[in-house]
Write a structure and sequence with these properties.
It is a single chain. By secondary structure, the chain is mostly beta strands. The model is unreliable at about 205-214 (pLDDT under 50). The strands form five sheets. The chain has a four-stranded antiparallel beta sheet, with no helix packed on it. A hairpin with a 2-residue loop joins strand 18 and strand 19 (about 200-205). The chain is globular and about 45 Å long. It has two domains: about 1-130, Methylamine Dehydrogenase, Chain H; about 135-165 and about 170-214, no CATH class. About 0% of the residues lie in helices and about 55% in strands. It has strands at about 15-20, 25-30, 35-40, 45-50, 55-60, 65-70, 75-80, 85-90, 95-100, 105-110, 115-120, 125-130, 140-145, 150-155, 160-165, 170-175, 180-185, 190-195, 200-205, 210-214. The protein has no helices and 20 strands. The chain starts with 12 loop residues before the first strand and ends with a strand.
């Protein structure tokens, strides 16, 4: 049984994210709006306005900023305290399907239907790297807890593991029969879990600095 049902959106909810301190939940809808909810009592704290469909959203590690990928190929950044839009990051040529902040909050990764991953420097919003080895859309991105590596899930039936500094692809994990929609690192960075449409979740284990399937 659910502990609570948060109601208020008038369109399909595409993404949800907890604030790092666990006191707030953000939900993004297809009509471009984001709602912020108080976890303790379920009350709506704020609504962030937009006009373009949002996909995944993510809080910055300090909880002060929220990022959302849009169907128009941009990444929107809001200040959580007052809902002010801080910036719109432009560069992708198709919908942005996944966003993730680095653990120290200095970088933001975005994965797009245009088959690329972009790394953005948060201090000035500059794109500092574009990773291009996927051959189909990138639906999810995730940083390892140490911030030195990241993973991406793609419609090309692979997961790729990247070195953040330099943007080198460290490994390509295959064996999928459908699009890979999600990836997540374990807290100790020994495991990488992935989810795909037509097969059970899989895990790859890192040994001696290399990635492989167990």
């Amino acid at each position: 049984m659910p502990l609570a049902t948060l109601q208020g959106h008038t369109d399909t909810i595409r993404g949800v994210a907890f604030a790092p301190d666990g006191t707030m939940l953000a939900s993004a809808a297809a009509n471009g709006t984001v709602r912020l909810w108080n976890i303790a009592n379920g009350e709506r704290l704020a609504m962030l306005q937009g006009r373009t469909t949002l996909h995944r959203i993510a809080f910055a590690p300090d909880g002060e900023m929220l990022a959302g990928g849009t169907a128009s190929g941009t990444v929107r950044l809001w200040r959580v305290a007052d809902g002010v839009r801080l910036d719109t990051l432009k560069g992708h040529t198709a919908a942005v399907l996944g966003v993730a902040f680095s653990p120290d909050g200095t970088l933001l990764a975005s994965g797009s239907k245009d088959r690329t991953i972009r790394l953005w420097r948060m201090v000035d919003g500059a794109c500092v790297a574009t990773l291009k080895e996927h051959t189909a859309g990138v639906g999810h991105v995730a940083f390892a807890p140490d911030g030195k590596t990241m993973a991406s899930a793609s419609d090309d039936l692979t997961v790729r593991v990247w070195q953040v500094a330099g943007g080198r692809c460290l490994a390509t994990l295959g064996g999928y029969t459908a699009s890979v929609s999600s990836v997540a690192f374990s807290p100790d960075e020994a495991w990488l879990a992935s989810g795909s449409a037509t097969r059970p979740s899989g895990c790859g284990r890192r040994r001696m600095g290399r990635w492989g399937k167990r």
